[in-house]
């Protein structure tokens, strides 16, 4: 039994058999994943299922290739069960009962992206992708393959679409002259999203905000509307657990991402200074 969750399976090949991306010989559930760009010599370029069980939900299975005389079965072969909210590129070549929430055709994937970090290779969704908001919220995990928050209605596939983000001003440790963070502290760090002429901090949806080394880590444990800089406008003050931020002694800046209540993406960053880091005596030369 295997569950594939928040994963991209891409650019694999099986020369003389099916199942270029996945060959199933057991009980398989695929949830919020993307299977694309795979090649096989027989039907089932993306997924091949024998006399076994495959269930798909919130998943993109498209843009795979099968080099066969009939030209069918590019994406899948065998019996596949849909649990709904999938986007299937080519429904031919297998037995599947499509549900009302399933889509077919071009998934609207951007070029494959891989920054070299294990597990980060993926297909971003294009702005016109039909997979956007096509998932079932009740089945979607809270974050996607990259750790980005999924927001309702969530998207089908491994990656949640990230619209162009508006830059916000963030103030780490507001009302303090320093931005000191002790990565080894079990405490909390206050971060404010400041209201400016371009962004009203009161429109930010606190549960969507993430803060940390990359802006995808810690969720706020507390949120409060208050005027942190005394300019007469309400700002959004958030508290984050420091151990959840992913900030280390070598982190030069911290980032924040999130969305407004109208689902406009936001982002912000600021430099930080880390303290409390234990430096080896051998490294300092004090032997």
Per DSSP, the total helix count is 1
Name the strands of the widest sheet in spatial order. Answer: 2-6-10-14-16
- Structural class based on helices, strands and sheet pairing: mainly beta
Question: Into which percentage range does the β-strand content fall?
Answer: 25-35%
Q: Which spans have pLDDT < 50 for at least 5 consecutive residues?
A: 280-287
Please estimate the helix content.
under 10%
Number of extended strands: 26
Specify the biggest β-sheet: 5 strands, parallel
| Outline | elongated
Compute the average pLDDT: 90
Describe the structure.
The structure is a single chain. With 287 residues, the protein is mainly beta. It has two domains: 1-162, no CATH class; 166-274, Immunoglobulin-like (Sandwich). Helices cover 1% and strands 32% of the residues. It is built from one helix and 26 strands. The chain has one helix at residues 281-284; strands at residues 2-5, 8-10, 13-14, 22-24, 27-31, 34-36, 39-40, 47-49, 53-57, 60-61, 65-66, 76-79, 81-82, 87-88, 94-95, 103-104, 166-167, 169-172, 180-181, 188-194, 210-212, 222-226, 235-241, 253-259, 265-271, 273-274. The strands form seven sheets. A five-stranded parallel β-sheet has the order 2-6-10-14-16, with no helix packed on it. A four-stranded parallel β-sheet has the order 1-5-9-13, with no helix packed on it. The longest helix is centred in the C-terminal third of the chain and has 4 residues, at 281-284. The radius of gyration is 23 Å and the shape is elongated. Mean pLDDT is 90; it is low at 280-287.
């Amino acid at each position: 039994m295997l569950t594939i969750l928040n994963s991209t399976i891409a650019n694999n090949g099986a020369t003389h058999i099916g199942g270029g991306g996945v060959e199933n010989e057991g009980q398989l559930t695929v949830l919020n994943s993307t299977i694309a760009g795979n090649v096989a010599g027989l039907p089932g370029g993306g997924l091949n299922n024998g006399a076994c069980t495959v269930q798909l939900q919130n998943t993109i299975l498209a843009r795979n290739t099968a080099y066969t005389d009939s030209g069918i079965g590019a994406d899948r072969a065998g019996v596949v069960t849909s649990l709904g909210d999938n986007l299937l590129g080519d429904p031919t070549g297998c037995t599947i009962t499509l549900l009302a929430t399933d889509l077919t055709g071009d998934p609207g994937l951007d070029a494959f992206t891989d920054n070299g970090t294990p597990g980060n290779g993926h297909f971003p969704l294009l702005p016109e992708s039909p997979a956007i908001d096509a998932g079932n919220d009740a089945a979607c995990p809270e974050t996607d393959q990259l750790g980005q928050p999924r927001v309702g209605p969530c998207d089908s596939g491994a990656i949640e679409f990230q619209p162009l983000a508006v830059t916000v001003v963030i103030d780490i440790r507001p009302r303090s002259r320093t931005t000191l963070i002790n990565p080894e502290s079990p405490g909390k760090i206050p971060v404010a999203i400041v209201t400016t002429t371009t962004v009203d901090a009161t429109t930010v949806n606190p549960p969507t905000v993430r803060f940390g080394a990359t802006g995808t880590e810690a969720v706020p444990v507390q949120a409060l509307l208050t005027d942190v800089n005394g300019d007469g406008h309400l700002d959004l003050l958030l508290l984050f657990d420091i151990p959840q931020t992913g900030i280390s002694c070598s982190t030069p800046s911290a980032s924040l991402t999130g969305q407004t209540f109208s689902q406009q993406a936001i982002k912000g960053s600021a430099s930080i200074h880390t303290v409390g880091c234990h430096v080896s005596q051998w490294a300092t030369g004090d032997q």
